[in-house]
Specification:
The structure is a single chain. This protein is an alpha+beta fold and about 775 residues long. Among the domains are: about 190 residues, no CATH class; about 130 residues, no CATH class; about 180 residues, Rossmann fold (3-Layer(aba) Sandwich), CATH 3.40.50.410. The protein is built from twelve helices and 40 strands. The strands form nine sheets. The chain has an eight-stranded mixed β-sheet with strand order 7-6-11-4-3-14-17-16. Strands 21, 22, 23, 24, 25, 26 and 27 form a seven-stranded mixed β-sheet that branches. Strands 8-33-9-10-5-34 form a six-stranded mixed β-sheet. It is globular and about 90 Å long. The termini are close together. About 45% of the residues are buried. The N terminus is likely disordered.
Length: about 775
């Protein structure tokens, strides 16, 4: 082990109240950091193109209730060094990704579906051999990772991927969503123990409001099947060209060329507020598939609804700072303020910890509602995002006899514990309905939709401030009048199997009943849906023999397989099962679909890189619109606060040596092979007493020495510490460094983040600037 020979600290104290950004001080032990996003710092070294993704475009074809999407990503190497580009991007949670191509010049390489590990090995081998290759992996059901290897200087490589999804209307409005950017995910997993599937979280981001250079485009070709009553985009400026009453082409306005930092949301309603319901059939070579979409009944009377209890769980973490939290406050004021007097409610706020309004739900009186609104209005957004403990706390709250419990989660979903959240909710099915509100321009829809589905509820997403009132009103209408309960499907004379879902949940909105499945023999017989609409029986049937199978329904096998894969994967999150993993893998291979266990890989036959080592570049992502720098976290964020010096570190500010220079005695070494450290105080302008600060540093020097053993640290780092009025370290900002590597700074900042300083007695936050030097 190579010890730190000497440790030099120069400290400047200033008693100024903190007005900077919040830092997520890591909770891990010394010498380790968490998997965390960090801010992109442009390297001034020549030869490396750090932004190889030049454009993303999507062509969407909507036919009836099925959308087919082709995404084109263009990578260009404008540097002089071969590249491997890594790009993290989202897709719809309902997307069935069924194809990928790589285009190099005039050569088109069609990707093959492989088991995930096999695809990774094939890609790495091709990369080492100097072949251009692309690899598409699923990190989450709505988060994909694209790797493109050996992009040679001057190369233009296009990667195309194709997916299909089903569009299901809510309250007679159809919605197509194209997610554009993956928001930063909070993770408390240490880097040393993170699995391969978790490391995508550790990704660079641009600062708040800073747009990527890469362009964004999307075109939607719509054949609705019925006359279109209304067609509008709530997220971007678009141009709509109607070919006829049921056909339209929607293109992005030129002003939105760099609008890839917020989800694209297109909505439409059909003439007469009709829903495209009915039966679709597809007859394949080996298997036949059907899709039933049946219009729901009308709403029931308000007086038929039993007593209800609502528990609002609100995310007040750092990523919610600004627009998301402001909208959350408006949403909660709207929802809570309009509860019936017979309702009961509670509010639980969470970030790194959680705060409960009351130990049991309260009647929705004006006094209690005002109290809840006051609690919410005081929140500003800071801390980590510990969602699981908040959910657990809500689920064990005392219940009121005779009341139906509903939990409403309000968050942007920037966490990496989706599976654990679904697990918790499913284990508590029957105890509460779950509704989830995702707030932000690019929320984690996998979490939002998955939580709602796991709890047999419905997801809502608010991407813009002016949507909050409408969404709150839609939610109130939904929960006040459930549409259909006790739903059963009967197949008479129609030979079906592998029908999904096996059980149909209650309908809380005017959403159609949807069934997937396979059929044998001839398309004949009837399908009947029965249930209860309030206190009245409901029944609807469809004659199968009146429908002819069509080749245009070729997406049905993908949609069925994707639904089945989702179901198996969700259950596998509850308990790992080799049989289910094998079944998901086999489904992916059989239906040519991207899954958690299958990936697409495309390899060029030509060896193009004949010896130069490729530089690996993680494509930086923009922060979603309306998301502040708080979402990334202080330590990681602050590391990127100064310019690079020749690609190896940060420029150091000049240190001014004051007349009152003070030098301490060397601290005693803690271990035999560890050198003592000396500490130098250059000046203290005001604030904390210098000797008290000095004692804290001397007390903890050995922690830094121990952490450095085997790490090979040398050089200088300047840190600014923000202390609470109680002396705890609230934020660690790396002002400058020349010791190399973001993770080194995170280790150092993580250790200092645990220190406790003396209290100034002024009941204000204090600022301490520390200059550390590690000498080999």
């Amino acid at each position: 082990m190579k010890p730190v020979a000497q440790f030099l600290a120069a400290i400047t104290l200033a008693a100024s109240t903190w007005t900077g950004a919040y830092a997520d001080v890591r909770k891990e032990g010394p010498c380790d950091t968490t998997l965390s996003p960090y801010f992109f710092v442009k390297n001034s070294s020549t030869g490396v193109d750090q932004l190889p993704l030049k454009s993303t475009s999507a062509e969407v074809n909507i036919a009836g209730v099925i959308a087919d999407v082709r995404i084109s990503q263009i990578y260009k190497n404008e540097g002089s060094v071969p590249l491997e580009a890594i790009y993290i991007f989202p897709a719809s949670t309902r997307a069935a990704v069924y194809g990928m191509k790589m285009i190099i010049g005039e050569r088109i390489i069609t990707a093959k579906i492989r088991k995930k590990d096999d695809a990774r090995r094939e890609y790495e081998l091709a990369k080492d051999q100097g072949r251009s290759a692309s690899l598409l992996e699923q990190q989450r059901p709505n988060v994909f990772q694209m790797n493109v290897a050996n992009i040679m200087p001057g190369d233009l490589i296009t990667v195309e991927l194709s997916y299909t999804e089903l569009l299901t209307p809510t309250d007679k409005t159809y919605e197509f969503v194209y997610p554009t950017v993956v928001g930063p995910r909070y993770s408390n997993t240490p880097s040393s123990s993170g699995t391969i599937s978790e490391k995508w979280v550790d990704n660079p981001y641009l600062h708040q409001g800073e747009a990527l250079i890469s362009s964004f485009a999307i075109t939607v070709n719509m054949a609705a099947g019925l006359p279109i009553q209304k067609l509008f985009c709530t997220s971007h400026k678009v141009q709509v060209n109607y070919k006829d009453a049921s056909h339209a082409v929607v293109t992005l306005d030129k002003s939105e060329e760099h609008g890839g930092s917020r989800d694209y949301v297109l909505k439409y309603r059909l003439a007469g507020d009709r829903v495209e319901s009915g039966l679709l059939l597809y007859q394949g070579e080996k298997e036949n598939f059907f899709l039933l979409m049946m219009e729901p009944p009308k709403r029931i009377a308000l007086e038929q609804i039993p007593g209800r209890e609502y528990i609002f769980i609100v995310d007040v973490s750092g990523s919610m700072y600004g627009f998301p939290l402001d909208i959350s406050k408006e949403l909660l004021r709207n929802l809570i303020g309009n509860l019936r007097s017979s309702d009961r409610f509670n509010v639980l706020l969470f970030s790194g910890g959680s705060t409960l309004m009351s130990e049991q739900s309260l009647p929705a009186t004006q006094e209690n509602i005002k109290r809840a609104v006051d609690v919410i209005d005081k929140q500003h957004g800071d801390g980590g995002t510990e969602l699981l403990p908040a959910l657990k706390r809500a689920l064990v709250l005392p219940r009121q006899e005779g009341y139906s419990r509903t939990i409403i989660m309000v968050t942007d979903g920037y966490v990496s514990v989706e599976e654990e959240s679904f697990d918790l909710i499913r284990k508590n099915l029957g105890k509460a309905n779950m509704f989830a509100f995702g707030i932000g321009s690019s929320v984690n829809r996998h979490l939002i939709e998955g939580m709602a589905h796991a709890g047999m509820g419905v997801p809502f997403v608010i991407t813009k401030p002016d949507e909050a009132s409408a969404q709150a009103e839609a939610f109130r209408k939904m929960i006040q009048s459930p549409v259909l309960t006790g739903i059963k499907a009967e197949f008479n004379g129609f030979d079906v199997h592998d029908v999904e879902p096996a059980g149909i949940p209650d309908l809380f909105a005017e959403r159609p009943v949807v069934l997937f499945g396979k059929w044998r023999g001839k398309p004949q017989g009837t399908i009947t849906i029965r249930g209860l609409a309030g206190d009245r029986p409901y029944e609807e049937s469809i004659d199968v023999s009146s429908i002819q199978p069509a080749k245009a329904n070729a997406a049905l096998p993908y949609l069925w397989a994707r639904h089945r894969i989702t179901l198996l994967s969700d259950y596998n999150m509850l308990r790992q099962d080799d049989g289910r993993i094998k079944e998901v893998t086999n489904l992916g291979l059989a239906y040519n679909l991207l899954t958690a266990y299958t990936s697409f890989v495309a390899v060029d036959s030509e060896i193009r890189n004949k010896g130069d080592k490729a530089a690996t570049i993680k494509q930086p992502l923009p922060l979603p619109d309306g998301v502040s720098d708080y979402a990334v976290g202080g330590i990681a964020r602050s590391i990127a606060a100064a310019p690079m010096v020749q690609g190896r570190g940060f420029a150091l500010p000049e240190e001014k040596k004051e007349d009152s220079e003070f030098v301490t005695e060397p601290a005693k070494a803690k271990k035999k092979d560890e050198q003592p450290a000396s500490i130098k105080i250059f000046s203290i302008s005001s604030g904390l007493e210098k000797k008290a600060v000095l004692n804290v540093i001397k007390k903890h020097v050995s922690e830094l020495n121990i952490c450095n053993q085997g790490k090979g640290l040398s050089g200088k780092i300047v840190l600014k510490l923000i202390l609470t009025a109680g002396g705890a370290v609230k934020e660690v900002i790396v002002l400058s460094r020349e010791i190399g590597g973001v993770k080194n700074e995170q280790r150092i900042a993580g250790i200092i983040g645990h220190w406790q300083f003396p209290v100034s007695g002024k009941n204000v936050e204090e600022t301490v600037t520390v200059s550390l030097q590690f000498l080999p």
